[in-house]
Specification:
The protein has 136 residues and is mainly α. The protein is built from 6 helices and 3 strands; from the N terminus they run αβββααααα. It has a 3-stranded mixed β-sheet.
């Protein structure tokens, strides 16, 4: 596959954002201390990728990871996670709250995985990317 460069990752990011349906401006950053891709923010969302991931992925694999992170933005998961954290803080003493909260977090990730498969229709690059990121 085609290796990731700064130019083609930005092009892929714009292309995948359209496919996923993200219409707002989203910044894409990379940082050496980040160990896994993450999304931060609701009003001005940012996707942060680990620097090591950019060196070890093909463009198809990077697109699948970007699609997952952009799905979090499209679904407004940052806001939902904020509300969930507030509920956990208020009801910290109740074990069922922690169990339900963990289940919600898992389902949120599964939902974004589904978006990747449905929009890109190529599960193998996504699987390969996840294995590669885990190895890093």
């Amino acid at each position: 596959g085609i290796p990731v460069s700064e130019i083609n990752i930005l092009q892929a990011f714009a292309r995948v954002a359209k496919v996923v349906g993200v219409r707002k401006k989203v910044d894409l950053l990379s940082h050496p201390s980040v160990v896994s891709p993450m999304t931060f923010g609701w009003l001005k969302p940012v996707v942060i990728l680990p620097c090591a991931a950019l060196n070890g992925l093909t463009i198809e694999q990077a697109e699948s990871i970007l699609a997952h992170e952009l799905a979090h933005i499209q679904r407004r998961d940052f806001l939902v996670n904020l509300l969930q954290s507030i509920a956990e803080s208020v009801l910290f003493f109740h074990p069922a709250v922690w169990w339900v909260s963990g289940q919600i977090r898992k389902e949120r990730e599964f939902a974004c995985d589904d978006v990747v498969i449905q929009t890109l229709q190529k599960p193998s690059p996504y699987l390969e990317a996840l294995v590669r990121l885990e190895a890093l």
